[in-house]
From TrEMBL:
NCBIfam families: SMC-Scp complex subunit ScpB. Keywords: Cell cycle, Cell division, Chromosome partition, Cytoplasm. It comes from the Bacteria. It comes from Pedobacter jamesrossensis. The gene is scpB. This is SMC-Scp complex subunit ScpB.
Amino acid sequence: MPQTKITRHIEALIFSSVQSISVQEIMLALNAVFEEEHIETQIFESLDLIKEKYSAADFAIELVNLNNGYQFLTKKIYHETVNQLQLHRSKKKLSQAAMETLAIIAYRQPITKLEIEQIRGVNSDYSVQRLLEKELISIEGKAETPGRPILYSTSSLFMDYFALNNLSQLPQLKDITREENTIGETAE
């Protein structure tokens, strides 16, 4: 099959996907439509062609590898413009409590609701429910402790939303502490 035909199909798959799409998902979709051997090699060649095509200054979007998949995103130069639109449309903002809960889950996952509440010091039922509804967290399973409480972890949508390939890219405490938050004088 001609490379340009496969490239266009892959481009359509990436464009139509709400979240990042993996090479395996692309392969499954293409194998269902075309019965072709060595299609995996052609997929990687097509991804390189698409990435090169959208790297041109004529396009406001680019192909980005996120969360072990591919997604079209706006180029960084347009982030402020897009951010302004998002600010006007953001009726579904997360509350401070939901952000705290999400941060705890992201850094301590998998974690039970009781552990979240022990860290926050308040009931977290509503925050956990809102995060599940927004699909930013998911149920990982059940803990092997008495009562078998539900374990929560971040979802792939969380990874896409915060543009992370893996959890090691989360900011570390040393990256976000400010000097005005320290006590005492620094010794030289």
